[in-house]
TrEMBL record:
Keywords: Signal. It comes from the Bacteria. It comes from Umezawaea tangerina. One of its GO terms (biological process) is lipid metabolic process. InterPro entries: PI-PLC-C1, PLC-like_Pdiesterase_TIM-brl. Gene3D superfamilies: Phosphatidylinositol (PI) phosphodiesterase (3.20.20.190). The keyword Transcription does not apply. GO terms for molecular function: phosphoric diester hydrolase activity. This is Calcium-dependent phosphoinositide phospholipase C.
Length: 332
């Protein structure tokens, strides 16, 4: 009974909020929808099935295979287990062999992009399950080269594009902000974050987001920032700015993307997270009280959840929702 009353109270609160409360600024001026585990065959038979529903974010889990196949693999567990096609044309993306490596999945994205050059900006969220290892040829520079060779460097909105003439990314975000959604038409934005296996590995104390930040610092100092195509994303909701300790100091100005539990963000209270100036992904949006279905909620309920999280600074709201009507929705 207590849970029921709490849910009713929360729902009543949402209904009572004035429409203007949803207009709080976010990083790009909008809040859009992403799909968790976009790459799995349980989510969709083919990756293009997801892309054609116009999500604003797809998620890819990546394993660096150091010892056997010597490549970046895509799957929830080690090995290639995914809905990416071996096709070489957009028309063939629902044919061919599935279970491709990361290069194959990225080529699917490129074929879709070439067929839809005016697509809405698409965030590609990469969870590096077991992290990078530059010593074995699986470092961030190699990852960036792979992005350039598949997606095409000119199709990616990169850290150098955000930085412009400012000293660093944080200065750029504070002064000019992220570009508007319309200004990012036809672009990919690649964010990379720590993997679950990596965080449990006692022999790996150099987390993915730290490696990506250090890559940006070194590239900027060496005059090669244009070759760095991915942004580090700090994974884990925090009520305050998480850029402290290892993520503070010289790294802080290069970390402008965040990811974490939507329910946690919603529980912090206050206005837009970190002033609404940063790219913020809020995951498992269905779990925010009152919880809604994780796969097929009523469209109106999902869209109300997007607006609710937009009010606290979400750039992307992520769940397992697969409906095109939900995935293509944006709130401003």
């Amino acid at each position: 009974m207590k849970r029921f009353l709490a849910a009713v109270a929360s729902a009543a609160l949402l209904i009572a909020v004035a429409p203007s409360a949803w207009a709080t600024p976010t990083a790009t001026g909008t809040t859009a929808v992403g799909l968790h585990n976009s790459y799995t065959q349980e989510t969709a038979p083919w990756l293009v099935d997801v892309l054609d529903r116009d999500p604003s974010m797809v998620e890819i889990d990546v394993w660096a295979n150091f010892f056997f196949t010597n490549d970046f693999q895509v799957g929830h567990d080690p090995g290639n287990a995914n809905n990416c096609s071996s096709a070489t044309t957009y028309e063939g993306l629902r044919t061919g062999s599935r279970n491709q490596n990361l290069a194959g999945c990225l080529r699917n994205l490129r074929l879709w992009h070439d067929h839809n050059p005016g697509h809405a900006p698409l965030v590609v969220k990469v969870e590096m399950k077991n992290g990078f290892d530059g010593r074995a040829g699986f470092g961030v520079p190699q990852f960036d080269t792979l992005l350039a060779n598949t997606l095409g460097a000119g199709n990616v909105f990169s850290p150098a594009n955000l930085k412009g003439g400012y000293a660093d990314l944080d200065t750029a975000v504070q002064a000019g902000g992220w570009p508007s959604r319309s200004a990012l038409t036809g672009k990919f934005v690649v964010i990379v974050e720590n993997g679950t296996f990596e965080l449990q590995n006692p022999f790996d104390n150099y987390d993915t987001d730290l490696e990506v930040a250090d890559r940006l610092i070194a590239a900027n100092a060496g005059g090669t920032l244009a070759s760095a195509l991915s942004f580090p994303a700090i994974n884990g909701a925090s009520a305050t700015d998480p850029r402290t300790g290892d993520r503070g100091g010289a790294r802080k100005p290069w970390m402008v993307a965040f990811d974490g539990s939507a329910a946690s963000f919603a529980g912090f209270g206050g206005g837009p997270y970190l002033g609404g100036k940063y790219l913020v992904v809020m995951t498992d949006a269905h779990n925010v009280a009152p919880a809604i279905d994780s796969r097929a909620p009523a469209v109106a309920d999902a869209q109300a959840r997007v607006r609710q999280l937009g009010a606290i600074g979400a750039t992307i709201v992520s769940s397992d929702w697969t409906s095109a009507e939900i995935l293509s929705y944006t709130a401003s």
